[in-house]
Every structure is written in structure tokens, then in C-alpha cells.
Design a protein that fits this description.
Structural class of chain A: mainly alpha
Low-confidence stretches of chain A: 187-196
Number of helices of chain A: 9
Oligomer: heterodimer
Mean pLDDT of chain A: 83
Shape of chain A: globular
Largest sheet of chain A: none
Structural class of chain B: alpha+beta
Order of helices and strands of chain A: HHHHHHHHH
Distance between the termini of chain A: 21 Å
Chain lengths: 196, 333
Amino acid sequence: MEITPIEVVRKLISGDEQSFEKVYRYFYPRLLYFAKQYIHDIEASKNIVQDVFTELWDRRNTLKEETNLNAWLFTVTKNKSLKIIRHLKSQQNYDSYFKARQLDVNYKALNDFDTSNFVFEELQVQINIALEKLSPACRKVFEMCRFEDRKNREIAEELNLSIKTVEAHISKALRSLKADLKDYLPIFYILFHLHK
Amino acid sequence: MGYTFKSQISMNEEKLLSYIKGEIRSEAEITEILDWIESTPENRKIYNQLKNLWVITGLDHPDHVEVPSFSFTGKQQKHIQISLFGSLLKYAAVFILAFVLGSTSLYLINQRERIALSAQYNTIEVPYGQRSQITLYDGTRVWLNSGTKLKYPVVFNPDTREVNIEGEAYFNVAKDEKHPFVVSCGKLKVEVLGTHFDVCAYPNENEFSTTLEEGSVKVYNNENGKFTKMKPGEQVVLDRKTDLFKLSRVDTDLYTSWKENLLKFDDATFEEVIKKMERWYDVRITVAPGINTKERFTMTIKTESLREMLLLVSKTTKMNYEIKESSVLIKKP
């Protein structure tokens, strides 16, 4: 699906329900996934994403044609998620100190996630380019680990490799992705030149 | 520029990743990881970066969720925990209760609950231009091609594992010889015990096909009960008009490589290429008069964008193209 930002945003501002639906259907699963990775609570995450889209619809008049819709959606989701994590953390009583600590670690990671210039399609292109640079074996292992949710042991068995080799491939892929996606990753965000 | 892990702590990268993936359950081990993250700002940065990298690379592969319909007028429904997880919990609870009551009642309640649950269905729809993958309750893995709908019971009924598809899917069926796995798609029915195969049955196509990579399957014509058995490397095509099966040996890779994000054509007509490209890229492709749609092509499309792909075609053939929003016109130069 290709989302041509200006066109969609223009229609959205004018209250076109079809354009909104298109954005909603495409981004709902992605934003839900994003929130869930940090909140670890599916129902709370669903509510956040619903709120994000309600806000988008209610505040469509405040958007401008040049608004980066991707960045808007991910930033609003991020901020709402941070708020919920703070709330969930404060709810944990003394017994669940352990859970509160994990939430805190996620809170700080999410806080470090720069969404202000996020362009979803460009990011996907970057990831594909980064993956293409890997050796076929390394790419296969990483894709099985990342996109198919397979355990290292399963990958090793299926591809007839040792677990050590699988781990080495994953480390190598991560290193390479880290370098290629540095613009999107927290400690290196200094300059953004994503819009041509 | 990136942080290089010293060999001494490279163990941590794998451990951190397992933690991020949610594979670590032991409280002691998690505490150890949390201690490590919190011990120095550098460690925290390493964790944050790995965590965010992991999230970023997964953003375009979200889990399958039902997208609730959006209400433009009023308050959105808040979510209450029921859904699939709720049903499974109920199932588990009944199972435990039955276990306490004894084996006779276990069988009865378990069966009844199972039948009730197997009447509840989940449906997944993959839009054009996208592909997806899920794992069913029994461990069967399903890859879904663009524009495909899969309907499956929350829990399989006690006798067979039955799913419905419209479109194209590749199945890696979990072995269970007592419970045949059945894929229904209109007239065509494919029955297996445990195997790897592709089913292609888009409702708007004249032919439905099954391609077998491994194991053995039986293919039925639902309407007249006729069936044929297949061996690996074979393909059965059902002509929906004549109701005839056609069995042939094929290079299965051509029909299954889409799940690795490769679109392969071997001596395919331009007409066939266009049909697949429309689904693959979610575009409408129109062909100007004078272009020979019976011309044959052999090519592999990797992860190229639509533009790159069209450029490639225009450079290697006597065709030109024009893109307008979500439609493409193929014309003479």
C-alpha cells in the first residue's frame, strides 16, 4: 500500500472518511504493535491506539497539508504510551516492584525513540536495503528470527546450522542494521535529512 | 560508529535479545538483566538501542489483529479482555475442572467445550500489496499472499482441522495423523495429514490450483466428489468451468517463492504477469491496445518497488509505462 502523504492529509483535513479509513486500517496494527512492545499490555495498548485515531479525527482541522502524518501518528502514540506506562508504574504496589522495574526500563527506551521525523515508507526501504547487504544465509536467519518469531534452536534445526552459527548471524545482522538505521536510533540522532 | 561489543560481554547481546523477545521467564535471570541495564548509562544506551532497533525492524510485520471498526460520531469502544485469549482461558479452566472431576466427565466437557469453541471463527484478511504469516492453534504455519482471506476456528473441532481460504496461501501443516487438515476454497478441497503445499484460489480466477512441495495430499472437487492424489513436485489445477483436474509436474519454487518475498515467472504470459503484479503492488494495470499480452516472460522480482520494476520491464522490452495515483498504463514507446 502506498500512502501519498500530501494527498491523504489534504483529504483528511477536508473530512474525507474514506481516506481516514485507509490510514486507520493500515496503521492500526502497526501502532498497536509499537505500543505493545513497551507497555506489554494488549488491552491498554488497544485503547491507546483507539485514542490516537479519535484524536486524529477530532483534530483534523489543526493538521496542515505538509504535516508528516507518520511522525504525527507515532509521536502521539509514543506520548500516550509514556503516560500510560507512568500510570501503570504508579499502580504497582510494593509486591510488584519487579514489574515496575521492567516498565521503567521500557519507559526510558521508548523515551529515547525519536519519532519526530519518522517516515514509515522510507524506513521500510532503509531496512530492506540494509537486509540486502547481508549474505543470504545471514539474512535468512535474521528474517526467521525477527519476522517469523522462531527460536534460535528451531532455526538451527531447520537450516542445519549450529546454534553458535545462528547466534553469530543474528549478531552480525543486528550490527549491520544498527549502522544503517543509525538515523532512527536514539543515541545517534543528531541530524535528520529524511525529506528531500 | 556503532558500539562494538567486546567478546567478554557479547554474551549479553544474546541474553538482552532473548529478554527483548520475551523468551526469558525466570525472575532471577530478568533481575540480573535489569541490574545490568541500570548499572551504567552506557549499558542503558546499549539496551535502549537494541530494544528500539528490534521494534523498528518489526513495525511492518505486526501481529494479526482484528481492526475494530472506527466510529466517526461517538466514543470508541473500550476493550475488555475476551477475544481469543479469553476463550482459550475458558477452555483451559474447563479442562482443569474436568480433570478434577474425573476422566468420564473430562471427555464429555472437553468435547462439548471444544465443539462450542470450534464454532467460533477468526478471519484474517491481507490487503493487496501486502503479505503475511500466522501460526494456527495446532502449530500449522500459514503464509498469506496479497488479497487473501483466511477463516479458521478458534479451536479445531475434535475430528478434523478445517480452514477456509479465498486467495493464495502456503501451508506448513503440523503433523497429526489422527486429525486430517482440510483446506476448503469453493469447489476445491485439499486434505492432508502433515505436509508443505500452496493453494491458489482467488474467487475471480477461472482456475484453482494446488502445488505440493513435500508429503502427500488429496485434492477433491467438492461438487462432484471426485478426487486425485498428489506427489511432491506436482501441481493440480481445477478448471472451474469444466470441473476437470489437470495434474502436471512443475518447478514448485515458481509457485511458493512468494512467501520469501520473491515473485518468479518462468515462460509466463504478460497477462499472467500483470495479474500477479496487480495483487503484489496493489495497483490497477491497464494495457494499451497494440501490446501483445501473450508475449512470454521469464523473470524474478525481488523486493523492488513498483517504479523500479516498471523501469526494468521498460528497459528490457518494447513497452513504456505511465503511473497515475494507484493505476498504471502500459503502452507502446
